[in-house]
Specification:
This protein is mainly alpha-helical and about 110 residues long. It has 5 helices and no strands. Helix 1 packs antiparallel against helix 3 and helix 2 packs across helix 3. The chain is globular and about 50 Å long. The model has no long low-confidence stretch (mean pLDDT about 90).
């Protein structure tokens, strides 16, 4: 049995989803397939790959540490769920884009 609480596991999942979002977003934007939806992060993506990913991961990680720090607080336990829903939706969008790109690739092979 894991020593991590359910809350901590959700925080780890959010970290992984955020990292995936950062990498996938930069990939899609650099290929001209998509645009960064967050106006604050759109400015950073123009600066460069490392800066964009560094800023995005740092900002979310700080928020996750804050939630972890107050993990016993009922407000923190409630506030963890909106980002979960948001990142799962963003993950689904990235998967849809990837599927669309692969579909075009498979058609071109046939």
């Amino acid at each position: 049995m894991s020593n991590y609480s359910k809350f901590t596991k959700v925080l780890i999942a959010l970290f992984v989803l955020n990292l995936f979002d950062a990498l996938a977003t930069f990939h899609w934007v650099s290929m001209g397939i998509a645009e960064e939806g967050n106006p604050l992060m759109a400015e950073w993506i123009e600066v460069g790959h490392n800066t964009f990913i560094g800023v995005k991961v740092t900002m979310v990680t700080l928020a996750l540490f804050l939630l972890h720090r107050f993990r016993e607080n009922k407000f923190a336990r409630i506030m963890i769920w909106p980002p979960v829903v948001l990142y799962l939706a963003v993950f689904a969008i990235h998967c849809a884009i990837a599927f669309e790109q692969l579909q075009g690739y498979w058609i071109s092979l046939g």
